[in-house]
Amino acid sequence: MSCHLKAITREEHLRFVAARPSVSHLQTPSWGDVKPDWQAESLGWFDEGGDLVGAGLVLLRPLPKLKRTLAYLPEGPVIDWAAADLERWLEPMLAYLKERGAFSVRMGPPVVARRWSAEAVKAAIADPAARRLGDVEATVREPGADGIAERLRRMGWRRAESGGEDGFAAGQPRHVCQVPLAGRSLEDVRGGFNQQWRRNIKKAEKAGVKVVRGEAGDLPAFYELYVETAERDRFVPRPLAYFQRMWTALTAEDPDRMRLYLAHHDGEVLAAATMLTVGTHVWYSYGASTGRRREVQPNNALQWRMMSDAHEGGAAVYDFRGITDTLDEDNHLLGLLRFKVGAGGQAVEYLGEWDYPLNKVLHKALHLYLSRR
Hints:
Elements: E1 4-7, H1 10-18, H2 31-34, E2 39-46, E3 52-62, E4 69-73, H3 87-99, E5 102-107, E6 112-116, H4 118-126, E7 140-141, H5 145-155, E8 158-159, E9 175-180, H6 186-191, H7 195-207, E10 210-214, H8 219-233, H9 240-253, E11 258-265, E12 268-278, E13 281-289, H10 298-312, E14 317-322, H11 334-341, E15 346-350, E16 354-357, H12 360-371
Helix pairs in contact: 7-10
Keywords: Acyltransferase, Cell shape, Cell wall biogenesis/degradation, Peptidoglycan synthesis, Transferase
Organism: Streptomyces lancefieldiae
Protein name: Peptidoglycan bridge formation glycyltransferase FemA/FemB family protein
């Protein structure tokens, strides 16, 4: 099949997304509005009959003082990754972006490579010989993923170095935790929780924790907890304006694209989180909590409400997003892995992000600069 690629309108892009069961929220037209430092453009792949058969949101970041840009397709593009003629999908994209002044292209194929069940992850954490998830035999190896990676290498693509701590990259996470919901009753989902999770949900219910949906006006309350969480967990917080812009952009595209949940106890907000939905895929996006009154277990109550609402809305998967791939007991991120997998989640490894240098000199200079920051 030969593909013709050209820029498409937001409306065309959104119709394409709406017709599919699962597309990353980072590949919706509205995500470009969340990133004002980047120029966003929707790309479309058309077949010989003129039908739109693929789409991608590309973010273009101009280099200061140079008429060149870095092109980035987070968790995209949305094309037929299993196609034997993958070159016919990607080569037109590279040619188009080169004409647009791109010197380097980064993309994140939405292709799963391996999965580990909750039981397999629990056993791996307990195994002193296992240092990383990759050291442990996967429960499922997705057919075709290795072949896609090899085809990308032959085309000149190279897997991007994460540059992040223990699998948490500056870009999108390669390892995530997902709770399957499709074909399961809510009782089945709750039955998949470990004993600690079930106990904590009961504690929250007995203590009178109430989880409610918030609105845009509740974002400052979320943000106050988020800043406290950033200090406790040692990461740099985004500004409040980022979340306000995210709310405005995503809910304008779809009123249910972004939700805010808050866990109350005795008149105080103890935990809050944002939830994103595209088709049948739901993501837990940003979470925040205070160190006060942790004994009433607001975080478990919050997640259970979000999972329940996702299930009621027909979601096929509840995605906890990024997890560490390290199994080191001394790593502060291991507790987060335990928390997410405790909800019956699978550890899922994607192919990761890939780079293509259209201008090798500028590409190398950029990566040298980033490595020294």
